Amino acid sequence: MLDCIFCKIVKKQIPSKNIYEDDELLAFHDIHPIAPVHFMIIPKIHVDSLGYCTVVHQALLGKMLLLAAKLAKEQGLENGFRTMINTGHGGGQEVFHLHVHVFGGDALLPRT
Ligand code: 5GP
Ligand code: ZN
C-alpha cells in the first residue's frame, strides 16, 4: 500500500523507534503514547484491519499476541499490560494497517 504510514515504517521510509523485528512482524513505540509504555505490533504485510483477516492470517495473529506478552515483559510491564486492536471506523481505528497496541505502566488505566 503506497500511502500507508505503517507500510512506510516497515520499509524504513518513515523513522520509528523499533523494539523488535523479524521477517513477519515489527514492533515500535507509539508516537503519541497513552501510557508510560506504549508500543504496537504490526505484520509486515499490509492487512487493513482485523476485520479483513481470514484463516490465512491465523498463525500470524497468534504470533502477534504471543509477542505482545513477551515484549511487554521486556519493556518492564511485569505487573501486566493491556492490548487493544481498534478495528474499523466504528472501532476508532485511525491507521488502516492491522496493529495491536500494547500499553501499561505506572499510570492508572481507565477501564474502557
Ligand atoms: P489506531 O487508532 O489506528 O488504533 O491507532 C493508530 C496509532 O498509530 C495511534 O496511537 C498513533 O499515535 C499511532 N501513529 C500514527 N502515526 C504514527 C507514526 O508515524 N509513527 C508511530 N510510531 N506511531 C504512529
Ligand atoms: Zn500498510
Write the layout of secondary structure elements.
Elements: H1 5-10, E1 18-21, E2 25-29, E3 37-43, H2 58-74, E4 82-84, E5 100-104
Antiparallel strand pairs: 1-2, 2-3, 3-5, 4-5
Bound molecules: guanosine-5'-monophosphate and zinc ion.
Largest sheet: 5 strands, antiparallel
Find the structural class using helix and strand composition.
alpha+beta
CATH topology value: HIT family, subunit A
Low-confidence stretches: none
Distance between the termini: 32 Å
Mean pLDDT: 95
Number of domains: 1
Bound molecules: guanosine-5'-monophosphate, zinc ion
C-alpha Rg (nearest Å): 14 Å
What percent of the residues sit in helical stretches (DSSP H or I)? 10-25%
**Overall outline:** globular
Strand content bin: 15-25%
Order of helices and strands: HEEEHEE
The total count of strands amounts to: 5
| CATH architecture annotation | 2-Layer Sandwich
- The largest sheet has its strands arranged as 1-2-3-5-4
CATH superfamily: HIT-like
Summarize the structure in words.
The protein has 112 residues and is an alpha+beta fold. It has a single domain, classed as 2-Layer Sandwich (HIT family, subunit A), CATH 3.30.428.10. The protein contains two helices and five strands. Strands 1-2-3-5-4 form a five-stranded antiparallel sheet, with helices on one face. Strand 2 and strand 3 form a beta hairpin. It is globular. The mean pLDDT is 95. The chain binds guanosine-5'-monophosphate and zinc ion (ZN).
